[in-house]
Amino acid sequence: MRNRTGFFAVVLLLAFACTPSANAQQNPGNTPGHAWWQHAVIYEVYPRSFDDSNGDGIGDLNGITSKLDYLKDLGVDAIWITPCFPSPQVDFGYDVSDYVNIDPMYGTLADFDRLVAEAKKRNIRVILDFVVNHTSDQHPWFVDSKSSRTSAHRDWYIWRDGKGPGQPPNNWLSTFGLSAWKFDPTTNQYYYHYFYPEQPDLNWRNPEVEKAMFDVTRFWYKRGVAGFRLDAVDSLFEDPNLTDNPVLPGKDKFGRPNMEEKYDKKLPEVHVELQRLRKVADEYDAVLIGETWTSNVAELEQYYGNNGNELQLPMDLMLTDLPLSAAAFREHIKAVDAARGWPTYVITNHDIQRSYSRYADGVHNDDIAKMMAGFYLTLRGTSIMYYGEEIGMENNDPKRKEDVKDPIGILGWPEEKGRDGERTPMQWNGSTNAGFTTGKPWLPVPESAKTHNVAAESGNPNSVLSFYKQVIHLRKTEPALLEGAYIPLNESDPNVISYLRKSKDGAVLVVLNFSAKPQNATFDLGTRGFAGAKVKALLQNAASVPGGTLQNVKLGAYGVYIGRVTQ
Ligand code: NOJ
Ligand code: CA
């Protein structure tokens, strides 16, 4: 839903150290030479939609706790829970009115502590979502801030005079439609909000804001959280002179003039602040994941900081915007893998169309889902998966404006339908409402829940779920998939992406057919130190290697082959 441009202007930066050991030195972890998060599969839970334990139609913390055995069995190492703090829910939790509590809709702090303790028993870590850029307009800080020009929290937000009667201070736009400024008649000034008007931006230039927010992270670290996913980091700072953004030709999906977000985003101050936030995280050996929307790999690279002093895991969200094309993915992965820092791959989340729907061709949908799993879970890096990807959940977009829950879908209908479609309830079984709730779910489940659900797929060795489990298992048990360098092969093949993951302990070959046509791939690994090598299948879908010879890896439509290279 957010603007993403210029992804193909990928910059190759090969000059930096990129071996796992180079990163590991900065991050002593619980695996020799690696921090835990470098091998992790991190599973994003949207709490409203995961499991409803009390029948009110909305998922909750006890629901998540009840599914930890499922997550353990799937092989996830950590869950990232999107905001579960008290909130008026205008942006479904991304409008926080109390950073150090749990919304009663989701449970209590005691429920949270139990979740962390039960997760720990299963060696699953808990990561929370830190909404750094803005609070809810119902947060006591903002309530005080707007009460008078001299209130204690006035300067905790960004208040300015209008340019003239009825005129906002400048031309900046909210990414959620309309102006980024809202007039408040109590004090006759405007406040700034990059997102909804109910989400006023914090003033991070104020040291009191910084201190209060850093203390929030300490509160949760002490409660056992392993780290944070940092929301909307690129909008933390704005130009203090409020320079107008350059206007570009054309209109956006809300019918407003296009604009270059030159003065309201990605200011250099963001990096300074992230370094400071990281220092606090280091006090607790915590991991910071960034919601890092970037236009190219060079920009992504900046989020690691100098000598790794910013985010350990800035998400590669560019990956979510690539077409299903071998050439596009190959070029992108090569650049990310060569960049300084540990790659963090993501194929979808709660703001983006599900990958199953994005890549579906109507014929090979499950095969494509398996191929994508075989891809992003075997790359060198951390994988962040979104709940339901492992069962091939599809988007269930609203069909009528009156059904839309996400405010941007109401404002932008029909061009912008909002994000409800990718946030529908987790599909646990084939019963009514997919076993998510005994009540009325807050969003409807699609027809495909009858076939694509945990219960049905658990009993089917050929299901998307079974494939995910196997590939995650391989990721943990094949040393080359853990440690190995990423070595692209057959780089001019227009349809098939192939690579080795090679470590001192051996190599794993991954071959992926990004097309609907059968393909044959052949490999000469002599130049890679594997003269006369053979291959032993570890996992495959619509693929085979007759006789184990690398001269003939046969792939059906969207086939995937993963094999151990043997001498
Ligand atoms: C990014 C979050 O992922 C999205 O869901 C939210 O609406 C905005 N940030 C504002 O917090
Ligand atoms: Ca509930």
What is the topology?
Blueprint: H1 20-24, E1 41-45, H2 61-66, H3 68-74, E2 78-81, H4 109-121, E3 125-130, H5 140-145, E4 159-160, E5 181-184, E6 189-192, H6 207-222, E7 227-230, E8 247-251, E9 257-259, H7 269-283, E10 287-290, H8 297-302, E11 313-314, H9 326-338, E12 344-346, H10 355-359, H11 365-376, E13 382-386, H12 407-412, H13 454-458, H14 464-477, H15 479-483, E14 485-489, E15 496-503, E16 506-513, E17 519-521, E18 534-544, E19 553-566
Parallel strand pairs: 1-2, 1-13, 2-3, 3-7, 7-10, 10-11, 12-13
Antiparallel strand pairs: 4-6, 5-6, 8-9, 14-15, 15-16, 16-19, 17-19, 18-19
Bound molecules: 1-deoxynojirimycin (NOJ) and calcium ion (CA).
Radius of gyration: 24 Å
Count the E strands: 19
Report the average pLDDT across residues: 94
Let me know the largest β-sheet.
8 strands, parallel
Structural class: alpha/beta
Low-confidence stretches: 1-30
Unique ligands = 1-deoxynojirimycin, calcium ion
Specify the helix fraction band. Answer: 10-25%
Q: How do the strands line up in the largest sheet? A: 11-10-7-3-2-1-13-12
Number of helices: 15
Distance between the termini: 48 Å
Question: Could you characterize what this model shows?
Answer:
With 567 residues, this protein is an alpha/beta fold. It contains 15 helices and 19 strands. The strands form 4 sheets. Strands 11-10-7-3-2-1-13-12 form an 8-stranded parallel beta sheet. The radius of gyration is 24 Å and the shape is globular. The N terminus is likely disordered. The site of 1-deoxynojirimycin (NOJ) has 9 residues, from loops.
